[in-house]
Amino acid sequence: MTTIWATPADVAVFLGVPTAEAPDDDWLVQCTDAANDVAYRRRQAAGYLTDDPATAPDSAVKLGTVMYAAALYHERGSVDGFSSFVELGQVLPTGGSWAQIRKLWGVDRMAVG
Fold first, then answer.
1. pLDDT value at residue 92
2. Which of 23, 25, 48, 64 is an S-S bond match for 105, by CB 3.0 to 4.6 Å?
3. Range of 27's domain?
4. Is residue 85 part of a domain?
5. Which residues are within 8 A (CB) of 108 and not within 5 positions of it... i.e. 6 or more apart?
6. 55 lies in some domain
7. How many structural domains compose the chain?
């Protein structure tokens, strides 16, 4: 079963990358696929057992999936978070959107049925 809640084109829009290049960017495709799978598993574990893998439950879940895919995309080649190409540049907090992603997915709280 393949989960398709976000597409590489969705993630490309979020990243500001030309969407025409998205299907050809293997790393973007891998990050999107992984984010879709993680989002689905996390929601299943949180009790959302009726989610359809082919369609995001709502726009919030889709956005959380897109944000997670973008975070994975940006972490390429970094040791512990968002990679930077500026030597001794401004230190940015890593993982700052994880709480927002979980909130959008509706996980780590009781499911309302």
1. 40
2. 64
3. 19-77+94-113
4. no
5. 46, 102
6. yes
7. 1
Cβ–Cβ < 8 Å for 22, 8: yes
The first and second tokens of residue 104, run together, are 């959008």
Judge if pTM exceeds 0.85. no
Distance between CA atoms of 48 and 109, rounded to whole angstroms? 11
Distances (CA, A) of 74 to 1, 45, 80, 82: 27, 26, 11, 6
- Dist. CA 36–CA 113, nearest whole Å: 22
- H helical segments located in 1-113: 8-15, 26-45, 59-74, 98-105
Q: Provide the residue-wise pLDDT of the chain in tens; the chain has 113 residues.
A: 799 999 999 999 999 988 887 888 899 999 999 999 999 999 999 999 999 999 999 999 999 999 999 999 988 765 555 554 454 444 444 456 888 888 888 887 655 55
**Which are the contacts of 87, defined by CB distance < 8 A and separation ≥ 6?**
none
The CA angle 101-104-109, to the nearest 5 degrees, is: 95
